[in-house]
Design a protein that fits this description.
The longest helix is centred in the first third of the chain and has 30 residues. Helix 1 runs antiparallel to helix 2 and helix 1 runs parallel beside helix 3. This protein is mostly helical and 219 residues long.
Length: 219
């Protein structure tokens, strides 16, 4: 379902219907969360499942956001090569997913921004632009959008420890930053809907930086 959603999203990008494409990437994020949850609940695991998960993520959270950003940049840079730089998102996503599959450090936390988080941030920017005039001006600036997208793509593979929302227990002291991420999600999504997603992802990254600074021995 994750992979099918990604392919459907690409179809709608090619049709010029970006908002429909973003609905599919949101659905894919739900399916991506549920597959791991169900695997843990059912206590099933296989190597083919691990590889299939990454292959589906490559399409949905690598190729699809590349096409979304390409279409957004095409508005600012018609008949130019600059929109093609959006494909760097897909390349970095492939490297990120390959590293994740062989990096044994990423059991309790992520190293580098996860591909779903990056894809959700970039692809929900049009909803943010619909909600706020300042965001419309910012995202409508092709040079800002290009620089921001490439910067986020680089964060996919940097040695940056980030919070993983995996609870070993539910004690507040052990999960302070996880609960803060969830709180930001609630206060952003409830009033703003999809337009609140960028605030959640940026808050998640900033809180991860704060946690790694406060607890360097755990990162």
């Amino acid at each position: 379902m994750n992979l099918a959603s990604g392919m459907a999203g690409i179809y709608f990008v090619l049709e010029g219907k970006l908002h429909y494409a973003i609905y599919f990437i949101l659905a894919a994020a739900v399916f991506d969360f549920l597959d791991g949850l169900l695997a843990r609940l059912l206590k099933v695991h296989s190597e083919i499942g691990k590889q299939l998960d990454s292959l589906a993520d490559m399409v949905t959270f690598g190729v699809l956001p590349s096409f979304v950003v390409y279409k957004l940049l095409e508005v600012s840079f018609p008949d130019d090569f600059l929109p093609f730089l959006a494909y760097f998102i897909g390349i970095q996503s492939a490297l990120r997913l390959a590293k994740f599959n062989v990096d044994t450090r990423q059991t309790d936390r992520f190293i580098g921004v996860p591909t779903p988080a990056n894809a959700l941030l970039l692809c929900t920017l049009p909803f943010l632009a619909d909600q706020f005039e300042w965001a419309q001006k910012l995202i409508g600036n092709g040079y800002f959008l290009l620089g921001f997208s490439l910067f986020m793509a680089l964060l996919l593979t940097v040695e940056l420890p980030l919070i993983a929302l995996k609870f070993k227990n539910f004690r507040f002291s052990d999960n302070l930053f996880r609960y803060l991420v969830i709180s930001i999600g609630i206060v952003s999504i409830i009033p703003l809907g999809i337009a609140g997603v960028p605030f959640v992802i940026l808050g998640y990254i900033l809180l991860s930086l704060v946690e790694s600074w406060i607890k360097p021995d755990e990162t």
